[in-house]
Amino acid sequence: MNVIIQRHPPYSSQLASESLDIALGFAVMDQSCALLFLDDGVWQLLAQQSPSSQKNLAKHFAALPMYGIDNLYCERESLQQRGLDEDALIAGVQIIGLAESKQLIADATRVFTL
Amino acid sequence: MNATLVIYSAPITSRAPYQALAFARAWLATGHTIERVFFYADGVFTGAASSAPPRDEFDAHREWQQMALAHNLDLVLCISAALRRGVIDTHEATRFQRPVHNLGDGFRLGGLGELVEATLRSDRTVSFGRHN
Questions:
Q1: How far is A4 from chain B (nearest CA, A)?
Q2: Whole-prediction pTM value?
Q3: Among A34, A114, A17, residue whose Cα is nearest residue A75
Q4: Which residues in chain A touch residue B116, judged by CB atoms under 8 angstroms apart?
Q5: Is A34 in contact with A68 (CB distance < 8 Å)?
Q6: Do A112 and B81 touch (CB under 8 A)?
Q7: pLDDT, tens digit, 9 for 90 and up, residues A64-99
Q8: ipTM score of the complex?
Q9: How far is residue A13's CA from residue A114's CA, in Å, rounded to a whole number?
């Protein structure tokens, strides 16, 4: 399993989108991968996004199962620190704790963090 | 062991290209091999031949160029990351009708698939830079 860690907010740079591209790159070559949203990366998962000048990331995430990427993990502590509620996130996200995210990283074949 | 190196950050605003170079030297010196060096996100600025740092400063572009020449390394810049940032070869300059090209010798543009392929052929993938 390749784990791609999303740490950056969605629209203050292109990093979130470039990070997602790595996941898609692995997926199109039939390599399993999961996305782990940590720190400010959790902002990417908000369901209500209406960017005016960049692509809507949340819509991209909804299409990920078509690429064979079924696992989107969001760290609970990162949400709590930002006062975000799980209900505000897009569907299909698995909320995991700090210990589980550590385990996910430890078990990964490769980890990519922009 | 065979390794793929991934560089996410630029020279000048980060130490990633320098640290990756130091790692590559040590790695090769101990008998290991490098499958490919992949420059992604701001790391692609390493490939810009138009950079001209003062002589007494670390010149990431030149150092990596010489390293590639000495050890026959495959230095690949992600093509979409590079085009976004203005690092462009003659072929892409023609294709997008741009008046300049600045990709240095020893570097080439390639797709993200080349990162994936390289990591699959490698025992280790080692990343440098970014995440702050």
A1: 12
A2: 0.95
A3: A34
A4: 25-26, 29, 31
A5: no
A6: no
A7: 999 999 999 999 999 999 999 999 999 999 999 999
A8: 0.92
A9: 12
